[in-house]
Structures are given as C-alpha cells and as structure tokens.
Amino acid sequence: MKRLFIISALCLMSVVTWAQKGLPSVEVKDIDGNVVNVQSILDDGVPVILSFWYTTCKPCLQELGAINDAYVDWIEEADFKVVAVSTDDSRSSAKVKPMVGGRGWTDFTILLDENSDLKRAMNVQTQPTVFVLDKDGNVVYTHTGYTPGSEEELFDQILKLQ
User: Between the CA of residue 153 and those of 21, 26, 60, 137, what are the distances in Å?
Assistant: First the structure.
C-alpha cells in the first residue's frame, strides 16, 4: 500500500511539473465567441505574456492596466504579445468584452476560459497568475499576485528572449 501511494504521488508530481513547462493544447473561446486552440497564440513566433484574470479581481485589473500603460513603450524595444485569459464563467463572461473595450486593452489578445480547462492545464491556483512563454510556448517565468512595479519583471523576461 505504501509503495502504491509513493508511485501515485510521483506520477501526480510529474503531471503537475509537465503542465507548468509548456503551453497545452486546449480549446477556448476568443472575445468574439469563436472556438480556438490556445496553441494558436504561438503562430506569430514571438514571446507571449499570458495573464490569467477575471472581471472582479482588482489585482488582476491593476496588473493588466499597468501592462497596458507600459505596452506602447515596451513594443518599441521588443517583439512580443500579451494574451489575457479571462476565467470568468459563462454567467459572467458577457462582462469581459465591454470591460476590455472600456479599459482600452485593444493591443491584447483576449481569450475566454469559461470552463477553466486552460487554467487547470496550466496549474493556475490563484489569480492574477502571469506566465512568460518563449516563441515555442515554453514557460520561462511565472508570477502570481500583483504589486505595483512587478510588471517590469515581465518585460525584463521578454527582453531576455529577444
């Protein structure tokens, strides 16, 4: 019995570790309701800031706002994109598009993970959680929570990938 427990624990740890290493192949919706495979965010061959958020999460909104404010300057120095994954469920996801428009997040790719499939596959436990992915979809940096100024570390990671 003890041996079975140890083997099970090791298997579980390997699955969790794998989920954090790369971008999984999961279907989500884009902001217009079209079903897309999340792997399509890698089609441009550039690094990606992948942020998990929801509409009532104040730290999430602050972080995405700070990234949006800095984006104009950052994009002059590095080629990358920002993908914001809303984890609002089907009842509250209708609020996402108006919020995105109202906050001026026009340069972000917005995805809707209404069933939390991508959130589970990426092992996201708290929000905001932000990943920096290289052009191949490998996770090179992860950050949870938000404090003002922490968005600069995201850009530092992007610069390392250039």
Answer: 19, 27, 16, 19
CATH number of the domain residue 81 falls in? 3.40.30.10
Assigned token pair, 27: 């279907």
Name the band, by pLDDT with cuts 50, 70 and 90, for residue 155: very high
Q: Contact, 127 vs 87, CB < 8 A?
A: yes
Q: What does DSSP assign to residue 39?
A: G
| 154 Cβ neighbours under 8 A, 6+ residues apart | 49, 67, 130, 132, 141, 143
Q: Is the whole-model pTM more than 0.85?
A: yes
As for how many domains the chain has, the answer is 1
Which tens digits make up the pLDDT trace of 72-90? 999 999 999 999 999 999 9
CA 123 from centroid of its chain's CA atoms: 11
Whether residue 47 contacts residue 74, with contact meaning beta carbons closer than 8 Å, is answered with no
Contact call for residues 131 and 122 (beta carbons, < 8 A): yes
pLDDT in tens, 99-126: 999 999 999 999 999 999 999 999 999 9
